[in-house]
Automatic annotation (TrEMBL), chain A:
<dbReference type="InterPro" id="IPR042856">
    <property type="entry name" value="RSP14"/>
</dbReference>
<dbReference type="InterPro" id="IPR057978">
    <property type="entry name" value="TPR_DAAF5"/>
</dbReference>
<protein>
    <submittedName>
        <fullName>Radial spoke head 14 homolog</fullName>
    </submittedName>
</protein>
<feature type="repeat" description="ARM">
    <location>
        <begin position="270"/>
        <end position="312"/>
    </location>
</feature>
<feature type="domain" description="Dynein axonemal assembly factor 5 TPR repeats">
    <location>
        <begin position="146"/>
        <end position="328"/>
    </location>
</feature>
<dbReference type="InterPro" id="IPR016024">
    <property type="entry name" value="ARM-type_fold"/>
</dbReference>
<dbReference type="Pfam" id="PF25757">
    <property type="entry name" value="TPR_DNAAF5"/>
</dbReference>
<feature type="repeat" description="HEAT">
    <location>
        <begin position="271"/>
        <end position="306"/>
    </location>
</feature>
<feature type="repeat" description="ARM">
    <location>
        <begin position="229"/>
        <end position="271"/>
    </location>
</feature>
From TrEMBL, chain B:
<keyword id="KW-0966">Cell projection</keyword>
<keyword id="KW-0206">Cytoskeleton</keyword>
<keyword id="KW-0969">Cilium</keyword>
<protein>
    <submittedName>
        <fullName>Radial spoke head 3</fullName>
    </submittedName>
</protein>
<feature type="compositionally biased region" description="Basic and acidic residues">
    <location>
        <begin position="224"/>
        <end position="234"/>
    </location>
</feature>
<keyword id="KW-0597">Phosphoprotein</keyword>
<dbReference type="Pfam" id="PF06098">
    <property type="entry name" value="Radial_spoke_3"/>
</dbReference>
<keyword id="KW-0282">Flagellum</keyword>
<dbReference type="GO" id="GO:0005929">
    <property type="term" value="C:cilium"/>
</dbReference>
Amino acid sequence: MAHARISARLPPDIDPTKAPIAFGERALPKLQEELQAPALLTRQRALMALCDLVHDPENVYQAVTLGFLDNLKYLLLDEDSTVRQKTTEVLCIMATHNVGRDGFIKNGVIPALSQLLNDPVDICRRNMHRAFEMMAELPTGAVGIVESNLISSLVLKLKTELDEIQELILDTLSGCLRVEAFEALATGAVPILKEKLTHPSVAIRSKAARALLGISVPQEGKNIVWDEEVIPVLVGLLEDSDPEVRANAAGALMNATITTQGKYAALTADAIPPLLKLVDDETSKVRLNVIKALTMLSEAPEGRKTLLNHVGLFRERLNDSSDAVSRAAKIAIQVIEWKP
Amino acid sequence: MLPARSQEAAAAGGTYSYCSRPRALPARRRYRGAPAPKEEPVRYGNLMYDRRVVRGNTYALHVLPWTAQPDPLEIQRQREAHRKALARKRAKEQLQSRTPEPVEGRKHVDVQTELYLEELGDRIIEVDVECQTDAFLDRPPTPLFIPAKTGRDVATQIEEGELFDFDIEVKPMLEVLIGKIIEQALLEVMEEEELANLRAHQYAYEELRNAELAEVQRLEEQERRHREEKERRKNQQAQLLQKQKETSEKIAARAFAQRYLADLIPSVFSSLRDSGYFYDPVERGMCYFFLT
């Protein structure tokens, strides 16, 4: 068969691992045919070329319309690890585009991806989790993940996976918890997250605190958080060096202390002094969450008593640069000075 | 015929003497009775019937068959004698003292030492020339047959710069290549930037959302608490009222009952007495005893 190449020796700067891309409109259809080829080398080369093309959103759109996602779903179960790696990478890049994410939901890629949860190759799992994380940012995507019953498996994976992948799982969970938290609570996510709060890695601590924030939004979450005595740990994290960790811990406290029992647990854990210290923190997120947490605590009479002495701090915050913080400060003052 | 011929042969001299000179043989008379022609005797004969022609094997032949037939024994003796003479001669030569062997580097040559030199005319200058093919030499391969060139030779040479100008031609190609590379790079960078922007947005939004959500929940909780508190107080109050009411009713009932019942006992007693329920047992006993 005649080849387009003239000589057996390739030109020096061509990447021999990539399939040559056809011109214009034919690029993606030809790659699609090559993806179905029985020869392993052809598939690998087509995948490498596809990885490059998928950075362009127009190509993503065309790929989704051509039905690439079915081919990629089939290739996810290939025996060769390079093929799986590259397929997950392609899916991950496609998930960064909105068109791709919509396509994922329509073609049910999430259940197919979840088959790789126990893949032996690290890179495949990492790309798969990255794709999930991107999907969880989108509300419909998060719904998709929840509907595929992935939350329980993800929570259980938290115990066993590598650190890098744990970060991605925690992000995914934060996204999904906005949609629905019951399944995560049923799988016992709170004890696991409590463990992660004391992890040596900063990123994991901050993400775990963020996940706890999300989990303590519904009532059951708050009760379980109080049950598992996470509140003292969160109070400890308020003195962490990383602002992200402090902000997320304050936020989790804010949500957990909405219930009366949460309030008293925080008060017994002596939360007010560290929180007061953080009212003047540099990061606006920290200040916001801290003021809100203090507002919660001041609903309880003991808290109110203590905070009445520190109303001055809140008054300073009334003219804060961030709107949200000044509003929060106003509300805090209102609550503290409320008389029954 | 023989003697005449031999005479002639001897007279001829020369190196060779014929026994009978070769002549054409006369034709044989055909008929016996026919007289011989008187003209010159044509002495022709038939080769086939000539007694001088040798017939039969020629390789086992006697050396001189036309001389007197010598005794074969005689011949043998002659040969032996010849051989012995040769042998004697050889032996004699060897025994004879010859001139000493030539010294190394010299050679003995026969030289005329007489007064008058003779030209050795009968010595033929001989030159030995040998020719011998080399053993085992194969036939050399035939040389390539390159026929002579016919036709005209024409050459052409492309000088630098005649075909195309590289710098000009390469521009559009380079532009496309570099364009593609930069496009891809830009796409990837933009993608990352976009993602970073999205994340920043999301971060800010999440912050606000969490705060607002907490606020909402707090207010909800507050509402709930206040409501519950109110409910409780109301309940308490209601209960209190209820209790009060009950107590007052009890008191009223008690008072009423007391009053009502205050009169009861004397009237009861009086009616009972009137009905005769209070009797003197002795009197009753007496009456009963006496009546029955």
